[in-house]
Amino acid sequence: MQGFDFPTLGALLFVAALVAIATHKLKLPYSIGLVAAGVALALIAPGTTPPLTPELIFFVFLPPLVFEAAIQIPWRPLRREMPLLLALVTIGVVLAAGVVAVGMHWWMKWSWIGAALFGVLIAATDPVAVISAFKQLRVQPRLHLLVEAESLLNDGVAAVGFAILVTIAAGADANVGTIGFDLVKTVFGGIAAGAVVALPLILIAGRTRDRLVEITLTMLIAYGSFLLAEHFHASGVLATLTAGLIVGNYGFLGSISDDGRQGVLHHWEFVAFLINSMIFILIGGREAHTPILALIEAAMAATLLSLAGRAVAVYPVMMAFTKTRLCVPWAYKHVLFWGGLRGALALALALALPASVPERGQIITVAFAVVAFSIFVQGLTMPLIIRWLGLIRDEGVEPTDKEKLTEPVGSPV
Q1: Is domain 55-273+295-405 annotated with CATH 1.20.1530.20?
Q2: Where are the transmembrane segments (predicted)?
């Protein structure tokens, strides 16, 4: 939390509130306004925005964001879409990372390990601006589920792949057996950590009707699962994702009271608002001092390759499900492709690169450039694309978030 004090925090929250009001009136994505505000603050009053560090993103910002998204996802429709989602976040992530890695190696002459690390970290998506547009425009439920669930699982897989590559870059034994063991430990260790923390604390929550206690226990679940997994070198993202799914499904079915459920949802919505506000303002502050022009060719190459990689990750994988019940409309594919924005996790992984990676400085700068493109260009045009594709729900009575996501899968169009 270096650079944070109460006056600074208060000032940033005040700026965030003003940006929220302005972007709502202008019908612009909130995250874009925050990044612009961060850039303006850094240029007008240098030193007012605290530094964006990987520790701050990983251990303070990331757990609540993953948890808040996970508790909103009901298990039944998620399970129904799981074969498609698993294909997207395994085969898709490998394809996306491979396109970027090969391209950066041959185009920019980066080392294979540097290009591979960049390919994996830039494959991590952050759909905050897209989900914000979804809520404003009332998109169809299945699309909302696919975008948010794919992003959460995508982040977990990208983080796992990055950890394995960092181990290889550090000079560890890179034989198939070792890599396979690390992969199993990272994935299943993360899932186990999430369950180990969430289940007993949910049972404790069932012993009280005090919503403040229930909210407190969910805070412990979100951060505790992440920290436990990271302590044992497993995936903190997968741990918190697992814990969130347990709380949002098993916990809300009886262990947490009806009053507590509403309190928990409102609390985490507020926490996500605060965390996203801080993240995007700090991203803007860092962008203002990132020497992108010095690496403009690499930044342009990486941006084009990341888009190509995302296209390869989405279209061929989804076409494999064309003749199944999980067939996805072309309009959904276009949204998943263009809505694959890069954000906080990609930057955290870039900043966490070991010094032994030859292109570390270039990777950090280029990662910020790709994130800036995705936020300003893809984020700004996403509402237009959603309207153009005709994906807005018909007018009528607005169902709850849970009801939206539990509607039956529609027929392909």
Answers
A1: yes
A2: 6-23, 30-50, 56-73, 85-106, 112-131, 152-171, 183-205, 212-229, 235-253, 265-285, 291-315, 335-357, 363-386
